[in-house]
Amino acid sequence: MLNYQSEVNSADGVIKENQSPWSSINPEFVARMKLQNRFKTGLDIAKYTAKIMRKDMQDYDLDSSNYTQSLGCWHGFIGQQKMIAVKKHHGTTAKRYLYLSGWMIAALRSEFGPLPDQSMHEKTSVPALIKELYDFLKQADARELRHLFKALDDAKAAGDEVKAQRAQEAIDNFQTHVVPIIADIDAGFGNEEATYLLAKKMIEAGACAIQIENQVSDEKQCGHQDGKVTVPHADFLAKIRAVRYAFLELGVDDGVIVARTDSLGAGLTKQIAVTNEPGDLGDQYNAFLDCEDISLEDLNNGDVVIKQEGKLLKPKRLPSGLFQFKKGTGEDRCVLDSITSLENGADLLWIETSTPHVGQIGGMVKRIREAVPNAKLVYNNSPSFNWTLNFRQQAYDLMVEAGDDVSAYDRDGLMDSQYDETELGQKADQMIQSFQKDAAQQAGVFHHLITLPTYHTAALSTDQLAKGYYGEAGMLAYVQGVQRKEIREKLACVKHQDMAGSNIGDDHKEYFSGDAALKASGEDNTMNQFD
Q1: Which helix (H) or strand (E) holds 265?
Q2: How many helices (H) and strands (E) does the chain have?
Q3: Cβ-count burial of 12 within 10 angstroms (0-12 exposed, 13-18 middle, 19+ buried)?
Q4: Is the dihedral of CA 91, 96, 98, 103 positive or negative?
Q5: DSSP 123-136
Q6: Cα–Cα distance for residue pair 248/499, rounded to 1 Å
Q7: What local confidence, expressed as pLDDT, does residue 209 receive?
Q8: What predicted TM-score, i.e. pTM, was given to this entire model?
Q9: CB 229 within 8 A of CB 270
Q10: Mean per-residue pLDDT for 293-321?
Q11: How far apart are CA 448 and CA 323, in angstroms?
């Protein structure tokens, strides 16, 4: 909690200690600048937000309705606007985070131009985006506090002590826009040392939560594409430990590690696990390999052989040199991955699925919780899912199970708009609306996120603007579709000069130069049209 008057008194004491050389320094201005720059370093942010996230995890353990949410970001302004919107519409940022998506960095932030989600982008862009996001969130703090300071000044100038007291209380109770960021480190961008070095940079930039996946780093694929290749557990656990060491070295003792398993959709492995005795973790990993019986006499040059339960087995090897797992073992591998990760240092799980199905997720979590009772998930509410079709098909199947007449519906064609207002369509929409709540309470999902929301909203809004602006509507397309809505919805960014920090700069000029300050916010500033 901030305390405006305490900061003023503190600054006043320092100024008086330095006597006449500092006599022109205003302690109230010093206090304002300090409050507008509360977080001095990324580590300050990481330590602050880690405590928030740990408290939220405890709240969820006590009551599963206390789940958390986030939206993916690819630019600082996007993250800033999300948190400004959250405070505007919901009054608090509590239990609302941001997600930093590796997919978005690859597609939108790489110096090579748009890239697929295969860890080909510069790894330095990951901590750079974390820092950028927090720079914009801190600027949102500075801007909002500046408006509160102005309200305090106006109340004092008018001699209204009640309003002045309220303004100071608003300053003291100010809630920062700085929230936890769950940051995607992909598969670690190399070996465990490379993972550790990158994790340090991410934490130093402000990350309190790092998400890492069990794919092979140089074979990494997007979680919703084919061709995914997993690593043996020992390799993955080494990277989890590397991230934990990075947190501890930097003093973020309660940093959060999210262990992601892609095993549900990954049918391949690059290497056979090392095993020292029957039943150990390496042996369990190898037991999922698709093998055939073989004798020593049948061996050919280059064949690989393993021994399980007293038998020689030959894992099936593809022309790529990769080994394949047995069909239908994905869920069992996910459960083993999850238990192993939680028992070896991870705090949260991420299970990448092919469809958003509460029953499927809950079934796996139930098995995981037999070994780790407080297991919790971060779940990707991915735009890669066709949510409408998936839930209409789920609704269809539930209607069939209940004995309802479904003759009016074509299960394979349920995306058609003719079903929008039907009983099935409305039931599916209700299921989509309650998905996050249901998954939190029935499937152990602590955190729901959408990885790529603003990738799609930017595309859609730009499409609509371009359609009208370059067509007959001309300027009306922008005015009607954008600016008029901004004004009526009271979006702060309609005053884009203020949003960019122009008024904060004017304040500083006044602090430094007094009446001689040349300010941009005079009567000829066209932003005044939006007052």
Answers
A1: none
A2: 20, 14
A3: middle
A4: negative
A5: TTHHHHHHHHHHHH
A6: 37
A7: 98
A8: 0.93
A9: yes
A10: 84
A11: 33
- Confidence (pLDDT) at 223: 47
Structure-block tokens of residue 293? 């019986």
Going by pLDDT thresholds of 50, 70 and 90, the confidence category of residue 437 is very high
Residue in 235, 298, 299, 297 with CA at minimum distance from that of residue 272:
235
pLDDT band at 356 (very low <50, low <70, confident <90, very high): very high
Alpha helices (H) in 176-292, listed in sequence order:
192-205, 233-249, 281-286
Lowest mean pLDDT among 116-125, 227-236, 338-347: 116-125
CA 406 to chain centre: 39
Strand-pairing partners, residue 181, are: 98
What does the alpha-carbon distance between residue 209 and residue 97 come to, in Å, rounded to a whole number? 11
Q: Which of 395, 420, 419 is nearest to 408 (CA)?
A: 419
- The CATH superfamily label for domain 42-270+329-451 reads Phosphoenolpyruvate-binding domains (3.20.20.60)
Q: Going along 268-341, which residue ranges are E strands? A: 268-269, 291-293, 306-308, 311-315, 323-324
As given in the structure block, the two tokens for residue 252 are 């973020």
Of 210, 247, 340, 256, residue with least CA distance to 58: 256
Question: Do residues 136 and 116 lie in contact, with contact meaning Cβ atoms separated by under 8 Å?
Answer: no
Distance CA 83, CA 261 (A): 29
Backbone angles phi, psi at 259, to 5 degrees: -95, 120
d(CA 377, CA 448): 9
Determine the Cα–Cα distance for residues 155 and 269; give it in Å rounded to an integer.
68
The residues annotated with a catalytic role in the active site are 222
**Cβ–Cβ < 8 Å for 104, 73:** yes
> What does the pLDDT read at residue 521?
77
Contact 133, 79 (CB under 8 A): yes
Q: Which residue type, as a one-letter code, is found at position 127?
A: P
pLDDT of residue 516: 86
What residue spans of 94-232 are helical by DSSP H? 102-108, 125-157, 161-172, 192-205
236/187 Cα distance (integer angstroms)? 9
How distant, in Å, are the alpha carbons of 25, 31, 32, 40, 483 from that of 28?
Answer: 9, 5, 6, 19, 37
Mean pLDDT of the chain: 92
- State percent of the chain over pLDDT 70: 98
The predicted structure's pLDDT at residue 116: 74
Over residues 15-33, the mean pLDDT reads 94
Angle subtended at Cα 167 by Cα 166 and Cα 171, rounded to the nearest 5 degrees: 115
Query: How many residues does the structure list for the chain?
Result: 531
Single out the residue of 215, 245, 46 nearest to residue 127, CA to CA: 46
